[in-house]
TrEMBL record:
This is ER membrane protein complex subunit 1. The chain crosses the membrane at residues 1013-1033. It is found in: Endoplasmic reticulum membrane. It is a single-pass type I membrane protein. Keywords: Endoplasmic reticulum, Glycoprotein, Membrane, Signal, Transmembrane, Transmembrane helix. Residues 1-18 form the signal peptide. It comes from the Eukaryota. The lineage of its organism: Eukaryota, Sar, Alveolata, Apicomplexa, Aconoidasida. It comes from Plasmodium gallinaceum. Residues 853-947, 961-1045 form the ER membrane protein complex subunit 1 C-terminal domain. One of its GO terms (cellular component) is EMC complex. Belongs to the EMC1 family.
Length: 1046
């Protein structure tokens, strides 16, 4: 009995110790939520006055604690959904979300999607949960109005009246009321009466009151004086719940509801004295909608309205049925509002002058007194789009919230920056990994007392449990992971030297590491020390994050990575992956000769689960429109504008980046860690399509889309390399004319450094004829970590076909019965066909292709199985395994031609899965020896793995129940990238989208360490093993011989 009790006690102690140390030993992850480019800011009056409600155009709603900068929660909606309107009060947040086929991408192309819908989500913001949903398929909600628990939802043909508590709803159809409307706007919801403004098909305007219980018209008032013109854009809004504001570039109209016999008061005024014909000369009616809701309505206050006429805005005071002109707001100013200590809204306008933001209230126009003068931080390059201020009664201080057109969101406390969030990180386009382990300072090794460590863990655990007794344990861990991340905060007040000290980087090692490059640097103009920062919040965040960084065991092998990222709005960030510390920020738009374009109303993401795509490099994907249900034979690359790879290694510590405008190219070389500009040059009338970096002579050979050649000598050095020996090849895929051509760069002169004799020769041309290109893919193989031998399960050796110039493409051709898809795999240098296959007739788009090392991975949908297929093509050489001793002893077998196209073996297998995938790629390790796993970002927003080397079965069904992301769900994730760590066993993983997520993964489930590693000792042990094996072999032979003789 005592043994049983002792056994149970040991089990309990083990469980307790496991729970105590669980947080320390689960795989490290760094998870931070992003909001995106903010389009609505609404202060919340309750919740101790510390919260604001935010939304972004790309479909996120967040409740932000503005004192900490951390979202209380972020509600993420479906892919490619947009938020049209956001409303919030002390109880609820209501978001109008839609998806239609009238949106444009960043290139101005309409995204056609037959799946049209809209819905309204109602959130309980006190308890942070979704209260109710009003969803409509094939319809777009025009507007909504809420009063207490009742909501009125407006459509073109009806109004729906619902209850947000029980989700009940009923409809009133305009056809039953004999109303023929082309536009409607809800004015007022009072008792059982709904008052609307509407325009009929004859372009006359009406004010109508409807009894929502009896579903009949009470009053119908035609505005005889006002008839609209369908060749002009009009904007409609409601002021103070009783005045309808209508305006265009020439006239401002207003209609006030009254209790008099006529029921309304109408008037108008001229706001532009220029000739009417010139004003409306270039008027464009988008999508045949000439009447639109006015976005300026959100800035109305009890005394003032603002209208936007394009080049400027006009502020008016409305009093006693009259419009009084107040101010003309130019493009250098923005309009917002300020909630004062009496909880009343005042209209404010902000002007950017000499790194100061001067805020004035319309209530103080006469004395010209500034409400506040804000000091801008140096991470902000552009003027603002939104400004909202509130008075915090608890601290008796003003807070201001500003959104800039580079997507940064900045909070000011009184006159100074409190913190700044870089929300453009929600729109990452491609990235580049860099490891700075060789620059780390020599650190002192610590010895830890295990017994004391357990006691400390126990004390820490008990203390945390007392403070948060009612919270689930896993929930605590998830919260701590997100709270520890420095994403997406910009620590603008730190100099680059201070950030390098935090990362323990030795500046002397940095200078010695790349002497030539460091000697050519210019002064860093992007990151200067700011000594005016006055708050401790960001300092405490840094301290907490870097304390964890220094103590966590995984920081030794996973904490030396910096990532460069490029966003859709051409901003480059460098950040430390483990902590999320942003090192610097570079604006690429100025190199393109243009200003910042706002992401407020631009689609920067495309549906990766519905469209065809291929990954080309650095996490960059080419997105092709899926033509499965489209009669148009022409294919379109949605994001072809930035097809050129942004980051390419120039030297050990620097990268080269190419920016392209409509007519010119801009070459920029900068230091990876410091952000210092090393070289920059603009090349006019030359659009770089391909380029080669000659590292020995620090030169760049650029080729444009017309196959012209230009040589750029970075340090004024002449090319002293033989171009012909370099074997510089490239290929050009023309998707519109259906051909693929290969070229080689040669020097036709006898002098190897004669730059004037460089020319191109065409090595091959592939004409696809009547087939249409569905998509194409390029190899993303990394030469430095390619392991050329595959070790099979029976310990035999197979040789991989090594070629980082493999290209693959899928074509389609129409037959009488269906569409035939064919897969081709081609050598990009010689143009020879490696492999081709007509896909099964049930194979349907979307097609996704990735080429890595000797694998071509094709993902598609099988219509017959109603499943998704991963078709794995492995390219091997038809070379027999000579055996280990033969390789060592035989001179003939030492060299193997790994580019031998005549002796190729193709291995194929299929994996059948239930999920569609957004992205997939292989694990990467330091030497490339560890077995490669295929990592999959599923449509469930989780990352799982697939070991494609284990199964010998040709068709294998795979069910996913284990995930690398564990309990984390990466909502609206757009992609991920895997990269090597300092350990051969471990792969680093970074995912981007609405969440920035970092973790690590061991493909083989094993773990090696670099702690206390001694190479000489290992070598000595290996020699001992060989000697022992040899001695045992000799002894066994002698023993066998002795037995036979005896």
């Amino acid at each position: 009995m005592s043994i049983k009790i002792l056994f149970i006690a040991l089990i309990c102690i083990k469980i307790i110790l496991f729970k105590i140390t669980y947080e320390e030993h689960i795989p490290y992850s760094n998870n931070a939520s992003l909001i995106g480019h903010i389009n609505f800011i609404i202060p919340i009056s309750n919740l101790i006055n510390n919260y604001i409600l935010l939304s972004s155009f790309n479909g996120n709603v967040a409740l932000l604690n503005y004192k900490t900068g951390k979202p209380q929660y972020v509600k993420t909606h479906k892919e490619d959904e947009k938020i049209k309107k956001l409303y919030g009060n002390e109880k609820y947040a209501i978001a109008l979300i839609y998806k239609n086929n009238l949106e444009k991408d960043i290139n101005g192309i309409f995204i056609n999607d037959e799946n049209i819908y809209s819905y309204i989500n109602v959130y309980n913001i006190v308890n942070s949960y979704l209260l109710s949903v009003f969803e409509y398929k094939n319809e777009i909600i025009e507007d909504f109005l809420i009063k207490d628990e009742q909501i009125v939802i407006l459509f073109n043909n009806r109004i729906d009246i619902g209850n947000i508590i029980d989700n009940s709803i009923y409809s009133i159809y305009f056809k039953e009321l004999n109303l023929n409307s082309i536009y409607l706007k809800v004015i007022l919801l009072e008792d059982n009466i709904v008052t609307l403004f509407y325009v009929d098909k004859d372009l006359y305007c009406y004010i109508i009151s409807i009894d929502k219980l009896n579903k009949n018209i009470i009053n119908l008032n035609k505005i005889e004086e006002l008839r609209l013109n369908n060749k002009i854009n009009y904007y409609v809004s409601v002021y103070n719940k009783n005045v309808v504001i209508i305006y265009n570039k020439k006239y401002l109209y207003w209609i006030e509801l009254t209790n008099e016999e006529k029921k309304y008061y109408y008037n108008y005024m001229i706001i532009n004295n220029n000739d009417e014909e010139n004003i409306f000369k270039n008027e464009i009616i988008e999508n045949n909608k000439f009447i639109k809701g006015d976005e300026m309505e959100q800035w109305y206050t009890s005394n003032y309205i603002v209208i936007d006429v394009g080049e400027y805005k006009l502020i008016y005071n409305y009093f006693d049925k009259k419009m009084n002109f107040i101010k003309k707001v130019t493009n250098g100013e923005i309009v917002g509002y300020y909630v004062n200590k009496y909880n009343k809204k005042e209209m404010i306008f902000a002007k950017d002058e000499n790194n100061k933001i001067i805020i004035k209230s319309t209530n103080e126009m006469e004395n010209e007194k500034a409400l506040n003068i804000l000091n801008k931080s140096n991470n902000i390059y552009y003027n603002g789009e939104i400004i909202v201020g509130i008075y915090n009664s608890e601290e008796e201080k003003n807070y201001y919230f500003s959104v800039y057109n580079d997507s940064s969101f900045t909070v000011y406390k009184e006159n100074n920056v409190f913190y700044s969030r870089e929300e453009s990180l929600a729109y990452i386009d491609q990235l580049y990994f860099y490891n700075f382990q060789h620059l780390r300072k020599n650190s002192i090794k610590h010895s830890y007392n295990i017994q004391l460590q357990i006691l400390n863990d126990l004390k820490k655990y008990i203390k945390n449990k007392i403070t948060s007794f009612n919270k689930p344990f896993i929930e605590e861990i998830v919260k701590k992971k997100e709270d520890s991340s420095l994403f997406p905060f910009n620590f603008f007040y730190l100099s680059i030297e201070e950030k390098m000290n935090l990362l323990n980087i030795c500046n002397k090692k940095k200078l010695k590491s790349d002497v030539l490059i460091n000697s050519k640097k210019e002064t860093n103009i992007y990151d200067k020390k700011n000594t005016d920062y006055k708050f401790t919040m960001m300092n405490s965040m840094l301290e907490d994050s870097f304390t964890r960084f220094s103590l966590h065991h995984s920081s030794k092998y996973a904490g030396s990575s910096v990532i460069l990222v490029s966003t859709c709005n051409n901003i480059i960030f460098a950040f430390h992956l483990f902590t999320g510390l942003i090192l610097y920020k570079i604006d690429g738009n100025k190199f393109q000769g243009r200003g910042m374009f706002s992401l407020k109303k631009h689609l920067c993401s495309f549906s990766m689960s519905k469209n065809n795509w291929s990954e080309i490099e650095n996490g960059k994907k080419l997105i092709f429109i899926n033509n499965n249900n489209n009669n148009n034979d022409s294919n379109i690359i949605l994001n072809s504008k930035n097809e050129l790879h942004v980051f390419k290694k120039f030297s050990k510590e620097s990268v080269i980046t190419i920016f392209k405008s409509d007519k010119s190219s801009y070459i920029l070389i900068f230091d990876i860690l410091y952000g210092d500009i090393i070289f920059e040059k603009k090349i006019d009338s030359f659009l770089i399509q391909n380029y080669f970096v000659l590292k020995k002579s620090s030169s760049i050979i650029a080729i444009d889309n017309l196959l012209n050649i230009k040589i750029v000598n970075v340090f004024n050095n002449e090319i002293d390399e033989d171009i012909n020996e370099k074997h510089l090849f490239f290929y050009n895929i023309n998707i519109s004319q259906n051909y693929i051509e290969g070229y080689r760069l040669i020097n036709s002169s006898q002098k190897k450094n004669d730059q004037n004799k460089l020319s191109l020769i065409k090595t091959y041309s592939i004409n696809i004829n009547d087939e249409k290109l569905e998509l194409f893919a390029k190899s993303i193989t990394k030469k430095n970590i390619f392991f050329p031998i595959k070790i099979n399960k029976d310990a035999s050796i197979s040789y991989k076909y090594i070629n980082d110039n493999i290209i693959s493409y899928i074509t389609r051709i129409k037959s009488k019965e269906n569409i035939i898809y064919t897969l081709y795999v081609v050598d990009g240098i010689s143009g020879s066909l490696i492999y081709s296959k007509i896909l099964d007739k049930y194979s349907k788009p979307p097609f996704h292709v990735v080429i890595n090392e000797n694998y071509v991975i094709l993902n598609y949908f099988n219509e017959n199985l109603n499943k998704y297929i991963f078709h794995i093509i492995e390219i091997l050489l038809d070379k027999s395994d000579p055996g280990f001793l033969s390789i060592i002893t035989s001179k003939k077998e030492k060299f193997v031609d790994l580019f031998d196209e005549q002796k190729i073996v193709i291995n194929e297998k299929n994996y059948i899965i239930d999920h569609n995938v957004k992205s997939f790629n292989f694990t990467e390790t330091k030497r490339g020896i560890t077995n490669k796993h295929l990592l999959l970002l599923l449509d469930t927003n989780k990352i799982s793995s697939l070991n494609i080397t284990d199964d010998q079965i040709k068709n294998h069904y795979k069910y996913f129940n284990q995930f690398i992301t564990h309990t984390d769900i990466l909502y609206n994730a757009k992609g991920f990238i895997a990269n090597e760590s300092l350990l051969e066993s471990t792969t680093l993983l970074f995912s981007w989208g609405n969440y920035l997520y970092f973790t690590y993964y061991q493909p083989n489930g094993s773990f090696d360490t670099i702690e206390n590693f001694n190479f000489l000792l290992l070598l000595f042990l290996i020699i001992l093993v060989f000697i022992g094996t040899y001695l045992s072999y000799v002894k066994r032979v002698n023993k066998k011989l002795y037995i036979e003789w005896s």
